[in-house]
Amino acid sequence: MELMIGQKLRNARRGQGLSLQQLADRAHVSIATLSRIETHKQSLDIELFVNLAGILQRNPSDLLASADQDETSSTRLIQKISSLDFPQRMHLWNQLAASAVERGKEAPRKSQNRQVAMQVEELLAQLDFLRAEIEAVSRRLRHD
């Protein structure tokens, strides 16, 4: 079974010989917050993720990588969707919602569609931010 990000962060922390307290202090978060992240009881925002990766001297992409380093179909799908502009993505979500209705599922309300679309937009923005951070870290590592 593939390790989740929290488990990968814990393994990296332990590999560095750091206690929860030491990493929490360096990341400026509480021990409780870090523990909840490592045990998947709390979500992790991108800014904190990149900060933790830097403290642990790990490339963020390594912490996100699956055990199988080959590009998966879901990764390709994410890249394809993120390359669409906003109107194209909205059209895609509307088509998916209509498809769900056709399969006999309950019709989602417009407000639910909009909420899901906005959540997807936020996620895509976070992915773009993370991609830029990973590229910046990679460039710094190549220059050092």
Overall description:
There is one protein chain. With 144 residues, the protein is mainly alpha-helical. It folds into two domains: 1-69, Orthogonal Bundle (434 Repressor (Amino-terminal Domain)), CATH 1.10.260; 71-144. Helix content is 72%, strand content 0%. The protein has eight helices and no strands. It is globular and about 55 Å long.
Number of strands: 0
Rg, alpha carbons:
18 Å
Low-confidence stretches: none
The fraction of residues in strands falls at under 5%
- Summarize the amount of helix as a percent range: over 70%
End-to-end Cα distance, whole Å, is 35 Å
Question: What brief labels describe this structure?
Answer:
144 residues, mainly alpha, 434 Repressor (Amino-terminal Domain), 2 domains, 8 helices
In short:
The chain folds into two domains: 1-69, 434 Repressor (Amino-terminal Domain) (Orthogonal Bundle), CATH 1.10.260.40; 71-144. Helix content is 72%, strand content 0%. The chain contains eight helices and no strands.
Topology:
Blueprint: H1 5-15, H2 20-27, H3 31-38, H4 46-55, H5 60-64, H6 73-83, H7 86-102, H8 110-143
